[in-house]
């Protein structure tokens, strides 16, 4: 019975290691690993404080060892865990389009705005949003606000 408890603890640690180094995200593997470790610690508490303290000590020692290993190896060996690629314009990455040029422009709504949809300004289709009101397709609108890629419009008669 004691061997099963230690096996459960070791399996939990293995699942947690798989979650960190192999499986992306925090999912089933991590939850199962945490459940196994916590379950084995709770089960060890029934065998007496000696076994519980021993498993807790092993867990603490592993934590310290991992911390020391991370500091010693740093990004040299464990660099695959850190994104190093830079997203530069020279590499083909560009920032979002600047929609501030549409501020104050009038255009025609191509799809009904409930409150979002598409409008056309000087031959260019733009995703727009109203201030909450419904604007039917074909209505004339004016751009009243631009925040990054969020273009806010109102019916041309409103401000």
Layout of secondary structure:
Elements: H1 2-21, H2 28-46, H3 49-78, E1 106-109, E2 116-121, E3 124-130, E4 140-147, E5 150-155
Parallel strand pairs: 3-5
Antiparallel strand pairs: 1-2, 1-4, 2-3, 4-5
Helix pairs in contact: 1-2, 2-3
Structure description:
With 159 residues, the chain is α+β, with helices and mostly antiparallel strands. The chain has 2 domains: 2-81, no CATH class; 100-155, OB fold (Dihydrolipoamide Acetyltransferase, E2P) (Beta Barrel), CATH 2.40.50. 43% of the residues lie in helices and 19% in strands. It is built from 3 helices and 5 strands; from the N terminus they run H-H-H-E-E-E-E-E. It has helices at residues 2-21, 28-46, 49-78, and strands spanning 106-109, 116-121, 124-130, 140-147, 150-155. Strand 2 and strand 3 (124-130) form a beta hairpin. Helix 1 (2-21) packs antiparallel against helix 2 and helix 2 packs antiparallel against helix 3 (49-78). It is elongated.
